[in-house]
Amino acid sequence: MDDPPTEAEIVALSSDHMQAAAAIRRVALWQRLPWLPDLHTPWEDEQYWRMHLLPNCTILGAAMGNRLIGVIAYGDNWIEQLYILPDFQGMGIGSLLLGCAKEEMGEIRLWTFQRNIGARAFYERHGFAAAEETDGADNEEREPDVLYHWRRLPELTPVLQPSDG
């Protein structure tokens, strides 16, 4: 059900992939949240990925064959972007990408829109808790959003009890 598909391969993305990464974000966001204002051109989206995210984040992609179907950008305890093409959602690809970020970071924060019920359920299934809700005044879409937080639980070391023998 939410198991990672065997065909998906996780790959590190380079500048050659930024146009495709920006396009995945654009398609996934506008198909799932059509009420959001379209504030940037595809070229501006690509430049954001190329000039801001690529130098400051780890950017991974999920690929099937030669097709990029999902992307994640993360670093400094933040997930900046996580998008899966709508036709490939619900197949475990987002879980696979999120798992890569969780392996590298012991604490993660991220923002999503309050009305993005699917994303909220996804993050909550993966142990994230809502930490703050806003009216959207501080994001460019002016859409109410929610800050999620996840923290890795500390490893428990078993305490050996002295034996009675």
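Second entry:
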Amino acid sequence: MEQRTVLVVLFEGVQSLDVTGPLEVFTGASQWHGDAEPYRVVTASPDGAPVRTSSGLALSPDTSLTEAAARSWHTLLVPGGAGTRAQDADLVAWLRANAPRARRLVSVCTGSILLARAGLLDGRRATTHWAYCDTLARNHPDVEVDPDPIYVRDGHVATSAGVTAGIDLALALVEEDLGRDTALTVARFLVVFLRRPGNQAQFSAQLSAQTARSEPLREVQRWISENPAGDLSVESLAARARLSPRHFARSFHAETGTTPGKYVDRVRVEQARRLLEDTSGGVEEVSRACGYGTPEAMRRAFLKALGTTPAEYRRRFHSSLTTAP
């Protein structure tokens, strides 16, 4: 069996989990795959010296980038972190000169910013941490930035969203290399899902809106999430919060940054997506379970929020599970 060398780039201010998450996946695959070790993980910093992560953790690399350039490797992984915002011209130049040698080029979180500076994402579709998608798109107009997925594959280049999305991408790569059984074993050992599809949204309705400060409104948010098929009119929600509808709507918007109606819409679409992904229920059944009442109402909501119909969304989702990521 081919042993794939995974070279992980380290630098000052790197995000520790961007490094250790994928590292645990690849080394875990070697541990659980059997006698053969399908991966050899090597870490390298610019000068071979230890680096300090954004959280203060010190990491000691195996080698320097100069020495690593003289060797062969299969996968080059570039993590993100606060250090990517520094203008490290030498690191970018190293990536520009050496990254094209990789059979597979991977970034985690804002590592995509380094790849973009090196011109390695020009003409490609890519993603990054949701908080930096606008920055990536603005500074690198030749990159097609998709802010929604947790990871994106474009040929031999794979980019992932923030932090833990690097684990999802690494698991997808292990599944591609070694099969589902090995990836599932690693996922179970790490107690994570195998696998969140790359087209899954980076954050949920609850994360995309702020959590309300006051307990009555936080309780209303919980109620909406747990009862998408219930009466979620402003009048009903206001009564649950023991406020007048006018006062409730004004307070909800002030504390969450969105209106009650838009929040309900997000929760219902999110719940419908989960049911379409995880169950075999028909579109009519799902629409009732999520409070739409009719399939046509859910269809309009999906077209508005996702640009696709529920049936097409389900087809694409299951297609992503049966083809290589």
